[in-house]
Amino acid sequence: MLEIFIGAYCVYFLVNFYTTFMQIDYIQKAKKQTAVILTPSKYIIAGNYATKSQKVSLLSTIYDFVIFFLWIGFGLGILDDLTISYHGWQKAVIFIDSFIIINWILGLPFELYTTFKLDKEFKFSNMTPALYIKDTIKTGILFLLFGSAVIAGLSFIIENFPTWWIWGFIFIFAIIIIINMVYPIVRDKMYDKFSPLEDKVLEEKIKKLLDSVGFKSSGVFSVDASKRDNRLNAYFGGLGKTKRVVLFDTLIEKLTHNELLAVLGHELGHFKNGDIIKNIATMGFVMFVFFAIFGNLPDELFLQLHLNKEPYSIILVFLMFSPILSFFLMPLISALSRHNEYAADEFGSNLATKDDLVNALLKLANENKSFPLSHPLYIFFHFSHPPLVERLKELGYNGAGIGAIKDEDEALKQSCEV
Questions:
Q1: 267, 310, 355, 367: which one is catalytic?
Q2: 229 classed as catalytic
Q3: DSSP reduced 3-state for 351
Q4: Residue 280 class from Cβ within 10 Å (0-12 exposed, 13-18 middle, 19+ buried)?
Q5: DSSP string across 106-132
Q6: I need a surface site. Which of 98, 111, 279, 400 has the fewest CB within 10 A?
Q7: What is the per-residue pLDDT across 18-34, written as a single tens digit (0 to 9) for each?
């Protein structure tokens, strides 16, 4: 049985490695061609950033492959011996917490390089060591308190219910719903500063837009995202009474009112089309299938891993192998997601105008230095959103005219001539 899981992991590794390698080669060739979507200077910058970040991803994939086999070979046995004096939910909490913390430490070099070297080089990250440490401590506390409680709860269910995988699914699915409800509150209290919009004219326009489609929220807020990152973004957070509209301060600074409304119109398209409910239902179905699989594994698998079939080892196998199943399901889920994105674009462009949405997408791409072209195979496995080129084409953008953003050097030259 273990051979099947290892074989699946090797296929997962090879596909991930190959698609990333093809993406790097594709971008290196594409960035030598005439710029599309982005200004010429930012097209090159975006290509360089995409290439470097994909190389980091490639190294990380190889590194994770090695770490996986170190765990399988002897790491799990050593960790099992170190926690041998614990039993039941205590064993599960200590074993799984240790496994997750060790993996986080092993992956820390890649995280630090991306945050403090790569993203700094391309002027994305504003993260300071002090803020990083503060965020890490807060996240660690949340994980140790609430993550451990969830592990303990799932362990109790595994120990006490013959059909534990059904009740375990219900328990974890309920936890995920609760997390989505309280996420904005946690972000507000522990990480970011949520403030009412200072621009009351914009706030009134947004409220009218929300009312026009029947979207009820607890408010419209600006978040000081720029203290960590310069990228532009906005989202609808929370569920039920905790729903709120959140705009990054960077987005408010760079987009006009009409462009902001077009972006929010796109998000409202997901709401109006029922995409949020569809995504929750899809996630629930996939999770149920996962619990059904991992809840009925033969004892042979655990013997081959030199572990007892107990709550801690069942949770461990779930954590180690569910990402593999997720990866191979993603092409189907992502294809549905890409379809929903086109529909949301159409809805958003009708709430505002196509010109406003096109201009907003162009600015987002330029400010976020998002390389607009990708290898088809990479898109198939990794993209939950359609390539920007395709989205703009659907909106009728032909690469010139409406909202065309000039290169900074060219714009400066023209202003001097005037």
A1: 267
A2: no
A3: helix
A4: middle
A5: HHHHHHHHIIIIIHHHTT-B---HHHH
A6: 400
A7: 999 999 999 999 999 99
